[in-house]
Specification:
Blueprint: H1 3-20, H2 39-42, H3 66-85, H4 99-114, H5 120-124, E1 127-128, E2 131-132, H6 142-152, H7 157-174, E3 192-197, E4 203-208, H8 215-222, H9 225-244, E5 256-261, H10 271-287, E6 292-298, H11 301-310, H12 313-316, E7 319-320
Parallel strand pairs: 4-5, 5-6, 6-7
Antiparallel strand pairs: 1-2, 3-4
């Protein structure tokens, strides 16, 4: 890494922390941090401006390369066919003991058709992050959403399509669309928060790993498999709330900035934390592609080695220290 690149990254990190630091955090030793102005949350920019350190990839069709446009068109075609054909979600084989129940459901569907009800509306009304996915509906944000999956799979259409299908299946099985309304333990609020925006308008998510230095909170969060599953749902809720602050339209701010504060965080010898971290990274990478513009971390080398094992190559390139 050249001195020029390092200087750019240091400049960006300083700007981000000064602009978007949450009120609950203490001053960093040796630094004079100005208090955050309350107007930041109220005046979130709607579009991305150019930056000397990094910029979000364009979602305008006119800015895409020829192979990228072709991939997007092919992706839309496959998605349209799958939604209209009812093949987007894999149909599970009915269990023998539930055959009577299945017959009752089929009879009910037949009666609804006779009554003139449009049973297909629900099948075609597939949405992701509030954006209708049926291409023929012409939703303004569909290109932005589909490009995230394409970029995560280097514009390999088949791979991106499979990734989207798995994401939709996971969301359906885990009831993710209703996750923002769930209530979790108030103790977890000290471990992460959404606060303000950076100088380009990206909502900032702070992950404060030092909160788990408390043995009581550590055991409450990671002590059992059930508690770790609860933690994963809470972390996904943080992502969902952050996404609600985005503008998933061409030219809009469509990704978050994450600041990972690892000061006083438990070490890698803690098996429960290691397992939870691996599970969290896997879920976020598989189901929230290209939702993070950059990860700014105060990451000691031994922790970098741990996190590096869990991150994809694309995610590694978004890390700043």
């Amino acid at each position: 890494m050249t001195a020029e690149v390092m200087a750019q990254e240091e400049t960006q990190t300083a700007e981000v922390v000064a602009v978007a630091e949450p009120q609950k955090e203490e001053k960093v030793a040796g630094e004079n941090v100005e208090p955050k102005e309350s107007s930041l949350d109220e005046k979130k920019p709607e579009t991305v401006e150019k930056s000397s350190s990094y910029k979000e990839e364009s979602n305008f069709l006119s800015d895409l390369k020829e192979f990228e446009r072709k991939a997007l068109i092919e992706f839309k075609s496959k998605l349209e066919e799958a939604i209209l054909g009812g093949t987007l979600f894999e149909k599970e084989e009915p269990k023998k003991e539930a055959s009577a129940e299945n017959e009752a459901e089929e009879k009910n569907d037949a009666e609804e058709k006779k009554e003139g009800k449009n049973v297909e509306v629900e099948k075609n009304d597939v949405c992701l992050w509030g954006v209708p996915l049926l291409p023929s509906k012409g939703a303004e944000g569909i290109d932005v959403v589909l490009l995230k999956f394409l970029r995560a799979r280097e514009f390999r259409v088949s791979d991106a399509f499979e990734m989207l299908k798995k994401t939709l299946k996971w969301r359906k099985e885990s009831n993710i669309d209703s996750l923002v309304d769930e209530v979790f333990a108030s103790d977890l609020a000290s471990a992460a928060c959404m606060s303000g925006v950076d100088h380009e308008g990206h909502p900032v998510c702070y992950n404060i790993f030092g909160a788990f230095e408390s043995e009581e909170l550590y055991q409450k969060t990671f002590g059992t498999e059930e508690k770790r599953s609860e933690f994963l749902r809470w972390r996904c809720q943080m992502m969902e709330k952050g996404i609600q602050k985005l503008n998933l339209k061409p030219g809009g701010v469509s990704s978050l900035l994450q600041i990972n504060d690892l000061k006083n965080s438990p070490g890698i010898s803690n098996k429960e934390l290691r397992v939870a971290t691996k599970q969290t990274v896997a879920i976020l990478q598989d189901n929230y592609p290209e939702m993070v513009a950059k990860n700014v971390s105060s990451l000691p080398f031994f922790l970098f080695s741990l996190f590096n094992c869990f991150l994809s190559y694309t995610a590694q390139n978004k890390l700043l220290f």
